[in-house]
Amino acid sequence: MEDNDFGLIPRILDSCMKDISKDSTKSFNPKQAEVITIEMEEKLWNNGFLGNDNPRKLFVTTFYLIGLNFALRAVKEHHELAVDNFQFETVNGVRCLRFTENLSKTNQGGIRDIKKKRKSVLAYPNEIQPERCICKIYEKFISVRPPNKTELYLKPLEDSTKPIWYSLQNIGVNKLRNVVKDLCKSANFTGFFTNHSLRASAATRLFNCGVEEQLVCNITGHTSTAVREYKRPSVQQMEGVSRCIQGGSQSASQSASTFVTTILPENIPEVTTPAISLTTTNNSVVTTNSTNGLFQFSYRNGDKSINFSLPL
User: Fold this and answer.
1) 57, 84, 137, 284: which has the fewest Cβ within 10 Å?
2) How far apart, in Å, are the Cα atoms of 9 and each of 4, 18, 86, 256?
């Protein structure tokens, strides 16, 4: 073949894709892992799908919190995790959990990656809901594993009365691949949920809280604008967009353009923290606290809640 012949290949493939796209029965429309919302996560905790009272549940909860807090990719990254990827460290008097990645999709250790830093993310403790704290969950998970095994995820044992809850056998790729899928199926969630849903959920929650794109990339490890795929608008934002088009009020315009509008009592002034601005509208239950260099926030409205901590 001549070099010119190779130049025809992309055009031929492009033409074939266009023909396929015209046929609705053959169109290429890859599924996108759906986001696990705050409300859905509340159901997982409140109905006992997440917790630490038995080996299987503790494994699933550890997997869930690690995937969510550190925005991990699909099964390969989970399967390659080792105890050495995680270390506890104290930051401004607060004991945090640090995750440092292995080689990844965006940093494969080649010549082009020499100047790239491996993703390293701190997870701060959830002091408002300690039973859901990744630091406490991970600490318990490590304490009931065989001490000389470096691989993170081991097969759960049945007996939770003994000090060791996990065997020396690693959990296989196929089992790990379905952790989030099986969890959401058990909770009767409808939709397409995979392990990648945890990464999508982390990025989407950050965007919806108004966190700057660069900070989101620090968590996800993205080095390009691909992170914007996770800017999935909420129902309230889409309603605001529709009302703007229809000549709606200024408040509708604001709800469409801002990433977070939190319901607070009207007599509480606006609170501003790094990367997040909380506005006031009407009555709900809110708790804020600043201790040990952290701003802690808890919002509750009926069965819905939002909790987070930020370094000051």
Assistant:
1) 84
2) 9, 14, 46, 44
Distance, CA of 282 to CA of 267 (rounded, Å): 9
What per-residue confidence (pLDDT) applies to 58? 98
Asked if pLDDT for residue 178 goes beyond 70, the answer is yes
* Residue 20 pLDDT: 64
| pLDDT exceeds cutoff 60 at 202 | yes
pLDDT band at 109 (very low <50, low <70, confident <90, very high): very low
- Specify whether the CB–CB gap between 75 and 177 falls below 8 A: yes
**First and final CA of the chain: distance in angstroms?**
63
- Give the span between the Cα atoms of 100 and 121, in whole angstroms: 7
Q: What is the DSSP string of 166-221?
A: EEEEEPPHHHHHTHHHHHHHHTT--S---THHHHHHHHHHHHHTT--HHHHHHHH-
User: What is the percentage of the chain residues whose pLDDT exceeds 70?
Assistant: 58
Domains of the chain: 38-104+111-230 (1.10.443.10), 235-311 (no CATH)
